[in-house]
Amino acid sequence: MQSLKKILLGEQGLVVIFALAFVLVSITVPNFLTERNMLGLLQSVVTIGIVSCTMMFCLASRDFDLSVGSTVAFSGMVAVMASNSTGSILLGLLAAITCGAIVGVINGVVIARFRINALITTLATMQIVRGFALISSDGRAVGINDPAFYDLALTRILGVPAPVWVMGLFFVLFGFVLNRTVFGKNTLAIGGNPEAARLAGVNVVTMRIWIFALQGLVCGVAGILLASRITSGQPNAATGLELSVISACVLGGVSLAGGRAAMTGVIVGVLIMGIAENVMNLLNIQAFYQYVVRGMILLLAVLLDNLRVSAATMSRR
């Protein structure tokens, strides 16, 4: 019993749970293992997966960002509107990524430099940025003028949609940054003990600003791909994304107390979120129940995080 508990709460525990759940779903849910459904599943988690890459850094440094959903929607709006007005898709993409990064820098400066609580700051920017998205479009969806914009989501490489490749690239890139760079080690150090990290020579304020800037930039990329996939700029897109992203990260072993993160765990957490929604769709379960399931997954994620922290504390004694 103790060994089973150790496995489930350890780094490999989530992988074991995911493997068992995947086998069970594959056996019981019709059409789950079809190529079409697998590709659809991967495409459905692209936004959550991409944003989770940098939310992992926010959580690992004892912060979090509730404005990611609004930033994704606003960036998508900017990409479409700038592309339409300039006639250049490239300029639209650059404008969207820049706007996302600016939102991230503002969050970082207010939180790190002015020492305003991350909850209050990102809750405020969540409302402000969503408001900008609604104001800029008068509350309506904005159509895409250049059909080439659709190719960002429709292009397939080796039979796999381009956004899935982008998500995979981000997983590899940020996994490398976390495990193999000074930036990643400093992020974990700040989350473990900010004061000790400062005394060790880490510029905590600058690091936190950079983390939020990266978060905003990645939201810009996610917003572009989402706008391309839904074929328009939607001011109400990505509503509730922040909770799904945080759930995926915490499920994946990223500690809400900071100082612990693993990209492999985040990937599994993202896939669990996607499979839960995919299975409900295949079983024709009403969309209303998905809110209940997301809430239960979030509670489960926080419970697992508390159990991991308790187990780690007991093992050190």
Structural account:
This protein has 317 residues and is mainly alpha-helical. The protein has one domain (15-22, 35-253, 261-312): ABC transporter involved in vitamin B12 uptake, BtuC. It contains 15 helices and four strands. It has helices at residues 2-9, 13-28, 35-44, 46-60, 68-86, 89-113, 118-137, 151-154, 162-180, 182-192, 194-199, 204-229, 241-251, 263-282, 288-316; strands at residues 142-143, 156-157, 160-161, 232-233. A hairpin with a 2-residue loop joins strand 2 and strand 3 (160-161). The longest helix has 29 residues, at 288-316. The chain is globular. The mean pLDDT is 92.
Count of individual domains: 1
- The CATH class label is Mainly Alpha
For the largest sheet, list the strands in their spatial order. Answer: 1-4
Determine the CATH topology.
ABC transporter involved in vitamin B12 uptake, BtuC
* Tally of helical runs: 15
Number of strands: 4
| Quaternary structure annotation | single chain
Largest sheet: 2 strands, antiparallel
- Helix % is over 70%
Encode the helix/strand succession as letters.
Answer: HHHHHHHEHEEHHHHEHHH
* Architecture (CATH level 2) name: Orthogonal Bundle
How much of the polypeptide forms β-strand, as a percent range? under 5%
Question: Mean pLDDT, nearest integer?
Answer: 92
Class by SSE composition: mainly alpha
Organism: Rhizobium straminoryzae
Protein name: L-arabinose ABC transporter permease AraH
Transmembrane segments: 12-33, 39-59, 66-83, 89-112, 157-178, 209-231, 243-276, 288-307
EC number: 3.6.3.17
